[in-house]
């Protein structure tokens, strides 16, 4: 079960960082706005995965891997993706420090 949550955290971060494609349908845009494009929903999902076995160190190392790995660094090519990744990293780091008992 821990492996599933680790994979879910990876997919959630990648989906948030990449954003929507230019030719997305109205339904995809609505779902993205409601779930995938919302920073609070993404961090809540990461927090849920942490409760179920993913460690904080794995989350932080995945953020570093997205920045440095050539295969994943394609996701952060444009400035909007870099900005989303940085904001997600800051928000999760702040929530790690703020509520140690919560996660």
What does this structure look like?
The chain is an all-alpha fold and 103 residues long. It has one domain (2-16, 24-98). Helices cover 72% and strands 0% of the residues. The protein has five helices and no strands. It has helices at 2-18, 26-36, 39-51, 56-68, 79-98. Helix 1 packs antiparallel against helix 3 and helix 1 (2-18) packs across helix 4 (56-68). 17% of the residues are buried.
Short recap of the structure:
The chain has 5 helices and no strands. It is an all-alpha fold.
Q: Characterize the overall form.
A: globular
Kindly state the mean pLDDT as a whole number? 86
**How many separate helices?**
5
The major sheet is characterized as:
none
- Share of residues in strands: under 5%
- The Rg value, from CA coordinates, equals 14 Å
The count of β-strands is 0
State the secondary-structure class: mainly alpha
Feature tags:
single chain, 103 residues, mainly alpha, 5 helices, 72% helix, globular
SSE diagram, text form:
Blueprint: H1 2-18, H2 26-36, H3 39-51, H4 56-68, H5 79-98
Helix pairs in contact: 1-3, 1-4, 1-5
